[in-house]
Amino acid sequence: MSDVEAPALVLIGSRDEPQRVGEVALLDGLMPGKRRSFGRATTASDGIYPLSLSRLRPGSREPTGPLHSVQVSRRQLLLSMNTERVITIAHSGRGVLRVNERECADAALQLGDVISVDNKFTLLFTSRPRAWGRDEGACRYGEAFPFGHADPFGIVGESPATWALREKIARVGGRPGHVLVLGPSGAGKEFVVRAVHERSRPAGAPLISRDASTLRESTINEELFGTAPDYPRPGDAAQPGLLEQSDGGTLYLDELGELSNKVQAQLRRVLDHGEYSRIGEARVRISDTRVVGTTNRALVSLRDDLLGRFVHRVVVPGFGERREDIPLLARHTLRAIASEDPSIQARFFDDDEPRVGQRLTVTFMTAKFTTHMWQLQELLWRALDQSAGDTLEPPSLLWQLSQQQQPQRRSQTPETTASGMPPSTQFDSATGLSRARVVEALERTGGVRERAWRELGLSSRYQLRRLMRQFGLLGL
What we know:
The strands form 8 sheets. The chain has a 6-stranded antiparallel beta sheet with strand order 2-1-13-12-9-10, covered by helices on one side. It has a 5-stranded mixed beta sheet with strand order 4-3-7-8-11, with no helix packed on it. A 5-stranded parallel beta sheet has the order 15-18-21-14-22. It has 14 helices and 26 strands. The chain folds into 4 domains: 1-139, Tumour Suppressor Smad4 (Sandwich), CATH 2.60.200; 160-315, P-loop containing nucleotide triphosphate hydrolases (Rossmann fold); 322-405, Orthogonal Bundle (Helicase, Ruva Protein, domain 3), CATH 1.10.8; 426-470. The model is unreliable at 403-425 (pLDDT under 50). Helix content is 28%, strand content 21%. The protein is elongated, with a radius of gyration of 25 Å. The chain is of the alpha+beta class.
């Protein structure tokens, strides 16, 4: 844990208080020789002070107190820190304590550990920037919106990674220049595109979307620039191109990495000055268009001279970098599903809160999401179809697999890479690849590097070796 990060417990599941999911208990006051309790207690006794939850955001901290459910013991958990700054958790209340789904009486915590007390609550051991919450009052970034809900642009999450994304969108939205949005499939790049558009263009400005993979070499000029009247045949009407349609607004080109080399070269010219002519006419037109492109491929799939025109880059984190947001995303998705199906609302909801079982919450933390929201939506639909009662549980086969994949307890030192950062936060800006994607490619190819570097879209096996060294993977 770095000096700028404070250890924290995030509530990711609660049977009786699901509306509090996402709240945080900071452990920055924990010191060697002192113990803190987590549970229902509101006052100290025997020198043990209770932890309190807060709705924590950059520049905003709203204390909400301890848990209130009578099913939770006053001192459900005791936390302590040794002289090496390792935090230990011990069970002191009713029920069964599990850490990463392994029953125990106590455990030395490591970043990413999932802590649950049967049929009561589930926590994620993580961290928060120490600067968060010091300035009471309004959040510094963006418009106000309810804690744990979607922001005005549809982005859901209260994790540091999601708030860093919002801050980046706010900066990019206020500056001129074309934007490249990077991130894995299903991470939410299209929400970022719309947020950048709405922050940088007047209300009502056009947002024209196009799948870049459908742009062909034989028709690229007509697609981008349009055609004049009587072209290519007399009597043909004029056809505006993408630049004309998006004038004054944004042209969103999805999956730029699928473009051929020739089409990339043609697009590069468009990005320079916005000057163009319809095919079949001599008049020079100017389009005030901001181009926002997205790709989930490595940056080596794009020409250097094209990349240079995208002066801003926004990286959308995958689920591995924002695990604590998954329960909030699941709740948001379930609400959308229930709004279209009253029978789901009646069976699985208490008012506006879905009843998500503890096993499903743990599955959110242990499942390997490679297509992110697409995979989460599939998981939720299967849970809706297969849950026997009125509480959502994971599909049985998926639950069995997640149990088989649970890791053994590691050393008491939290896992970090050479940079001192947790592995899930590692990202290489030169290739657009995260540590998680490199690990997934190595796992899929059985560790055969010759296959892995090709699958990742890298230029050589030496580039893969550089990434493995950077991410601390050379021992794999």
